[in-house]
Design a protein that fits this description.
This protein is α/β, with parallel strands linked by helices. It is about 35% helix and about 15% strand. Strand 14 and strand 15 form a beta hairpin.
Length: about 450
Amino acid sequence: MPSYQFPDHFQWGTSTASYQIEGAVAQDGRKPSVWDTFSATPGRTLNGDTGAIACDHYHRYLSDIKLMAALGVKHYRFSLAWSRIMPDGRGTVNEAGIDFYKRLVDCLRDHGITPHATLFHWDSPQALEDLYGSWRSREMATDFADYATAAVSRLGDRITHWMTINEIACFTHMGYAVSADPVHAPGTRVDRIKDVWQTSHHALLAHGLGCQAIRAASPVPCEVSLVDNFVPPIPIDESPANVAAAQTAFPEFSTNGGIVVPALTGAYHPALLERLKDDAPEIQPGDLETIHQPLDSFGFNIYFGVYVRAADNEQGYEILNFPKSYPKLDMPWLNISPDSLYWGIRYVNETPGCSNLPIFISENGCAVQDELTADREVIDSDRIFYLRNYLKAAHRAIDEGYPLRGYFLWSFMDNFEWAWGYDRRFGIVYTDYTTQERIPKSSYHWYAECIRQNRVV
């Protein structure tokens, strides 16, 4: 029987994001982000929920970090709020915002936890949306680089693991749309598909300029990563024909060929450009060189994949629909597909020039219908089932020699789940939003045992 033992020095961690947990949206100089505006707009979020209080982590970070330390994690991925550090998105730096992150990071380090900071996790300053339409403008990329410089020059003595941007497709292709109201902030309708792709191109530019800014501003040697949630095609079975079909599908499926592929290779995938034709983004000279920055590692956010098989058609493959009875958890898209983790790692490793690029799972987790028992416990055995199977897929990748270095479980605690408000719970710690009490779930104790034994238990 396999023991599912992980290598020594494997990085066990957990993840959160600023707008989802911090609260204190108008405190100590912070100004609104697009998510403050979006969530305060009637009809945009479930039950009209906003992140104004969220988990009140801004005031409760010390007790949260103590709970994190008791879990046993040695690595914590969180994000900085751009509008807390630069309230107007550009110009003046809010030193009170910087001081909060200094206190947070110092507390992490005091508890033996290494900080991993994401510079942007969707909460762009509303001021830049008002000024020039945020991601619709190339100016956003240069303003992001200036923000990166401000943050890293002030925090780089404490933080040496940096991530530029989280999940470009979500705040661009889900934040801008043509024929319907987008489900994510800023929630802007645009005139053409081309305009949507232009926003993700500007985000890629921001990533490239951000990499350069981090390395120039850091006072000590540091590591720089990009975090993406590309959707991996999974061969329906691992016959040579279906494996080859899935490998062909990877750069052509969804937004993969226009986000993760150019970031890793310096070129949009030809099949995507052929499909888009006049809707492809405008690419200025030098853009692709800027986008294609050397990375120290790659952060892979993974929740689900799609099944693929070989087909006698022009593409050579077909994407298979999930049957009605296929198991899923408490999100419409959350089809349980642990092999997606393994195959996603393979696709990054098989990308030209990336065979030795270290990879970490920067997010993996699930929403389930958590219930408090009469004894105020949460017995989330469904979440344990999900996590156990995805960690087994991670072990397979390592066992086959792929450079997977760490795993950051999403999420440390229940939080504001974007347009779903407080209705969907991803945490391994239960948040009572009325009292702000934290209650470790069964999955918290299960994950603690995985960390203690350094294996899947």
